[in-house]
Each structure stands twice: as structure tokens, then as C-alpha cells.
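Dear support,

We are seeing what looks like truncated structure output for some complexes. This example has two components. We would appreciate it if you could run it in full and send us the complete C-alpha cell output so we can diff it against ours.
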Amino acid sequence: MIATDTLALLPLLLLAGTAVVVMLGIAAKRSHELTAALTLIGLAASFFSVFGVTPLIPRQVTSLLLIDGYALFYLGLIIASAAAVVALSYQYFAKHDGQREELYLLLVLATLGCGVLVTSVHFVSFLLGLEVLSISLYGMVAYFTGRGHALEAGIKYLILASASAGFLLFGMALIYAATGTMAFSGIRNLSLGGSNLGLVLPGIALSVTGIGFKLGVVPFHLWLPDVYQGAPAPVAAFVATTSKTAVVALLVRYVAAPRQLPALFLLFSIIAIASMCAGNLLALRQNNVKRVLAYSSIAHFGYILVAFLAGSTMAAGAVAFYLVAYTVTILTAFGIVTVLSTTEGDAADLEDYQGLFWRRPLLASVFTAALLSLAGIPATVGFIGKFYIVASGANASAWPLILVLVLTSVIGLFYYLRIVVTLFSAPPARQVSMPKLDWGSTVVLGGLAVLLVWFGVYPAPLLTLIRTTIGRLN
Amino acid sequence: MILIFLITILLLGGILAGIAARWSTCLPRWISLAAIAVDLAFAAGIWSHRSLSASQTWYDEVDWNWIPSFGIHFHLAVDGLSLLMLMLTFFLGTVAVLCSWTEIREKIGFFHFNLMWVLAGIVSVFLAVDLFLFYFAWELMLIPMYFLIVIWGHERRVYAATKFFLFTQCSGLLMLISILALCFIHHQTTGVYTFEYSQLLGTTFPSGAELAIMLGFFVAFAVKLPVVPLHTWLPDAHTEAPTAGSVILAGLLLKTGGYGLLRFAIPLFPRAAHEFTPVALTLAVIGIIYGAVTAFSQTDLKRLVAYTSVSHLGFVLLGIFSWNALALQGAIMTMICHGLSTGALFVLVGGLQERIHTRDMDRMGGLWTVAPCLSAAALFFSLASLGLPGLGDFVGEFLVLLGSYKVSVGLTVLATLGILASTFYALRMMQRAFFGPNTNSWRLPDLTPREGLIMTAMILGLLWLGFYPQPVLNTFAPAMDNLQREVQMPAAALRRLP
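Here is the complete output from our reference environment:
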């Protein structure tokens, strides 16, 4: 039994092992290439072990972790996105002097935290995963301490994340007091039974605060634009994709049927509507591409909440598909920001993108595709994602939420188009030196662009994969 | 399989044209022309070999599984209605390439790439009979059009292009909600998830839902058509677009709205459409008169032509919602002839702007003396536009009025006023721009052989449609019978309208 349990945990164990190896590697020889290579090898091993574990599922490992199709699907997504971030980071950090190696260590640890989150079915593992993730992120966000906004972003993230973790803990305590269990399944059964709702509801509401903070949905979104702006571009990509994916996966498992608790449904509806409106409206006034992406991500997690709230049979699939779509798209967008960045700072101003299409047509086309995917235009993966969400909402007759989604996403279109117009406008007179792409960034960006269009035009294989894995939840 | 080729040839042609611009400025133009010509030949092939057995609806179709978990198929099919629209598309596509031969001098490869892809999108819209595929194509044709306006447009291009995109996207999303609602209602009654047009026909709705769902479709098509008051994007987009963009916008994109109403909005929701008829007919008449009156007060030549489109497409809406054989035939004739006559006017205005760098009628005048052929062509198409008997537009509008007379006498009388008003704006345009003394002493070259060729083809087309429209009506007839079978709208009940 022990051996099988250990085997089932292989992806997580490999992640933890990678962290140790990378740390020892840095201690033995400080080499950027070596560290990045070790990290990538470890992530790759962990990724492939996900497939190896498949015959064992579903398997409950202690009462804390559950390895099932759902967990493995998200593990795969998380590890793959982390690997993409590593590949993008290499060129970005190679340009910088100083100690770059620890970033990879933190990144592997954060990925491990995410992995624990998606497999967790218990408060203890939930909190463990969340804290491993958060504490690694503090370091990653403020990695360039010398840069203008980095420290601000790091401190902001540190304080707010600690506060939200406090709320989360308090919520857990209340729920435990009312139900006497810390396992998600036990809480679900008891809370649906109607006993002690007086304590459970505040408990859930407080824990939602903690989750809402990590997702950056309104009204817990204040840290998000500053962190995106201040953090190095690849780290911002990691915050936007890997860490948020893990938290959404956990949320769906934690609150499997939001419709059965009317108060909770109302709470999430308000959060979703506020996020869609505020995210899209606030993005209108931004001139900084990273901030635009930050506000747009607030809106996108509002969309995801709509699918989550629909709670129909399609909902878990819609959330999973949208997360894949979002991960692919945002990694592409931040990938472009990353490769265009220089040692002086990230390419964040709209001016940095002026006329990019006429100088680097391929890069600009990929960026355009990513923006159109965020806007949900057909032939990109973002469209199928949005279609799936609207479909699951329609299936559950959640018309008000869907109408808000549609109307706010038209507002969203406006600021995506603004960036697109900039890409295609006349290039500036002064000559800007364009960075060369190393093979890692090229492979990652090319692969992401192919996925972005492939899943947008022929999503059937991905849908089947989601159906066969996520379908085993509940 | 031919239907797939129709689309892929355009897509590949676009990519090739984009690459070819590296070596030559002429090559992309020839590649585009060749691609469209091949498509035109294919379409003509379908047209000349068309035959239907009693059970068939489509001349040709392609049906592949696409996204099985939602019951989505890649299903293209062609009937008489689509075929007419395809011919129009390829004809105007050729015109669009030819008329930008000297106008577009920068970024030629990317221009032709976009031109080909917008045509491919339009062709897919006319062929799609799976609602998901239809929506896919509907949205996809926007992007190249957006680029055409935003990169090669005139002064206020960013504003116009953004407005165009937001209007169409917003209405399109409402249609997406409607499509999904339709599918789920169909699923609830039959237990089958499908987006298939032929299966969704005859869906039974819970009370109240049908009208709401139809309105989602109607708004999407009404924005494209355009129906007043959803038309405000049109004057901006038409005016700021490059000539080829205006030709495609006016000639084809607006027609997708009419096509959508004919193919989807009414047959899928016959009862709701019936309830909605008084409103639609009133909107149509408002559009006819409003478009004509506003056109009369324009000084920008291109804007004037844009507003005439609002007026002419009011007739299309009037014809479609009257839904009897005469009115439908009239609507389809108006759609085709408007494509030719307005397309030609945009080519002429574009040619003028290329020569004298203004579209302001106040700065023109007396152009007939220096450019008689160009002015004569303008006169011809103005007369076509005002509905001179013997030219295609007359046939279309006359048939629409005949048909709508059976439905509502009062509205038909008001719509006739629109034809009267069109005389005013067309003649005013001729007087201000082409007749009178040449006060600004303009000296400009007359039509080039290339422009002459475009004009001749369009003049011949309009004359043919005006004197012998029967082939068009024959092509349309079986499709119209199919559509009408789905919608047994009791015309008698409509006579009660004022």
C-alpha cells in the first residue's frame, strides 16, 4: 500500500526532488544554464510521470490528497505552464547580471505548492499548498529588488496575501467548529444537510475571501495590477497562469455545487459580475500592457466564475477548458512581453509595440492572435472557451450572468483592439534594436501559437481529454 | 468537395499573395485575381450543372463531424440563394482587386491577404448550414475587414474601424446567446444536441422564448443590413474604408445581413417573425426614408453613397418581412443590384479621390468637361440607384413594392416616397459634382482602361438584370419554395396592417 501511495504521488515527489536538486546544484556551482536545465529536466520528468500514474487513479493518499483524473489533468496543465515559464525566463534573466539561479528554485517550489492545491481534498493540504505557493511568490515577485516597482509589488503582495491567509484560516476554524471535519467531502455533506449553517456560511464566506484574493477577483483585486507591473514579465506570467489555475481547480473541488447554497450562489454571482464589469472598465484607461493584461485577467476570472456558478453538468468541463485556453493565451501574451523586454525594463508601454508588425511580423501576428483569443474571436482557443462558458450558462439558464458576460466582453474588445491598432500602426521613426529570440523562447512561443489556433479550430481532442479526466470528478 | 475548395482557394490565395509581395508589387494582385477567377469558374460550374431531385434541398454539400461533444458539424451546403450570393461575392471580389490596383501602394501583400480572407469569410457565411459554423464564419470575416479599414483607411480610420467592430461583435454575441438558447431548447424537446440548420427548423418553443431568441438573431442581422437605428457604424466605416473595403462592405457584408434574415431568422422562428412583422416593416420604411433624406444632405460624396445603402437595404428588409413570392424575389434582386450599382459608385468615388484628393462635393463641379467617360459612368449608376426602369435596381424595388402592397398598403405608399427622394439625392449629386462650370479648374485624367473594364462589366450586369432578370429568379425559385415551405406565414392575416 505504501509503495502504491508513493507511486501515486510521483509527480509531486519529483517536483519536490527537483527543488532539492536545483538547490544543491546552485550550492555546488552557480551556473544559470545548468540551473535552468536541471529545472526543465525535473519539470519534464514530473510531467511525464503524470501519464505514468494514470493506471493508479483514483487513489486517496492519506486523507489529505486525492489523485484522480481531475488532479492529474490540472497537474499536467500546471507543470506544462511552469515549464513554459522556465523556458521564457532563461533568455529574460540571461540578460541580467547578479544572482539569477534562485528564481528557478522558487519557481519549482511554487509549482509544488500548486500541485498540492490541485490534489488537495482537505483543509490542511489546502493551506500547506497555498502557503508554499505564496511564500515562493513573494520572492519571485520582488526578484529584482533594484527595480522601481518590484519592492512595492512584493511588499504589497506579502501583506495582502498574509492577511487573506488569515481570513482563510479563520474560516476554516469556523467550519471545523461547526462540522468537526476538515475534509471537503465531509463539509459538503454536513453543510448540505442544513445543520449549523450559522457557522458554516460565515466560514465558507471567509475562506472564499482567501480564494478570491488568490484569483484576484473584485473586491480582492487591488494587488493584481501592481504585482503584474512590478514583477518580472515571466513571473507575472506564472502568477497569472499557474498559480491561478491551481486555485480555481481547488475552488471547483471545494465548492462542487454552488447552486445548492443560495447564499453562496449570491455571493459568487456578485463577485463574478463585479469582476467582469470592473476588470473590463478599468482596463480601458490603461496605457501599460502589463496592467491591461492584469485588469483583463480580473474580467477573465469573472467569466470563469460564471461557468463555475452555472453548476450544470458542463460546468467543470467549461472551467477546465477555459483554464487551458487562458493559460495558453496569457503565456503567449506574456511571452511576447518577455522577449521584447530589455535590461532597462519590461516592454510594457504601448509605445514599445508601435508598428511591431512591420518590423517583426511573426511576433506581432502571434501577439495579435493572443489578444484576439483574449477577446474571444473565432479560430482562437479563447473563442471556444467563451463558447463553452456561455453554453454551460445557457444550459443552466443563468441568463443575467451571461448577458453581463457578453456586454462586458464587448467593452473588453475595445482595449484589445487598441493594442492591435498599435501593433499595426506606422513604426516610430527612431530605430529600435529588436532582440533576437533564443531557441527556447522560439520553441515555446511557436508551440503556444500553434496550440492557440489548433484548439480554436479543432478543439475536439482537448474536449475529449477533459471529458474523460474531469468526468470522473464527483 | 467543391465547396471546400471555394474557401481554401481563397485562403491559400491570400497567403500566397502575402508572401509574393516580397518579390513583386504586381504579383499579389494577379494571384488574388487568379484565385477569385478559379472560384468564379467553380461557382459557374455548379450553376450550370444544377439539378435537384424532389427530395434534395442542396445542390452540393460537405458534412464533416467537427466537435462531436456539442453535436457540431462542419456542414457547408449550397442552394439557389447561396449560389446567387456566391456569384455576387466573386464578381465584386474581382472588382475589389482591380479597383485597388493603383490605390494601394503600401503593404500590398498584407492588403491582399486580408482581402482574400474577408472574401473567404463571406463565402463561408453564405455556405454554412451549421449554426456554430455560421457564427464562426460570421465573426471571422470581421477581422480582415477591420484590418482593411484600420490600415489602409482614410483620416478617421481607427475610430470607424473600432466602431464597426464593436457594433458587429456586440450584436454577434447576442446572436451567439440566441443560437445556444435555440440549441438547448431543441435539446430539451428532442434530447439531441445539434447545431444543424435542417434539424433545428420546426423547433417548438416555450411561450415567450421564441420572440426573445429571434430578436437575438434579428439584432445581429439588423446591424449588418443595416436597420435604422442600428446603422450608425455604416456611414463611418464606408467613408473611411479604402475603395476595395467600401465595395466589399456595401456589396457583400451588408448582404450577409439580408441573407441571414432570409435563411435563419425567419425560417427558424416563423411565429415570432410573424408577430414581429409590423415592427420590422415599420423599421424598413423608416430606414428607406431616413437614408434617402440623410443622403440628400451630405457633402461628402462617399458618405452620400453610404447613406443611399441604408435606404436601399430598407427595401430588402421590407421585402423579406413581407414574405410572399414577389417580395422575396424583389429582395434578392435588390440585394444583387445594389451590390453592383453601389459598388460601382464607390469605385468611381474612390477613383475621383485618387485623382483630386477630396471627396467634398463643394470642391467639385464641372467634372464632366474634363472627364466625360467617368462622369457618364457616374450618371449611369446614379440613374440605376434612383430606380430607372430598364436597370436592375428598378426590377428589385418594384417587385418589393408589389409584394409589400399585399401586406400593407400604407407602408408601401410611404416606401414609394423613398424612391422619390432617391431621385433628389442622385440628381443633386450629379449636378453638384459633375455638371456646371469647372470653377476649381480641375484637370484630371479620364477613366483608365482598367477602370473602363470594371465599369463596362458592371453596366452590362445591371442592364442584363434590368431587362432579363429571369435567370436570377429561376435560380432563386427552388430555394425560395423551400424557405416558404418552412414558414407558412399567412399573408392574409397581415393585410390588417395599416
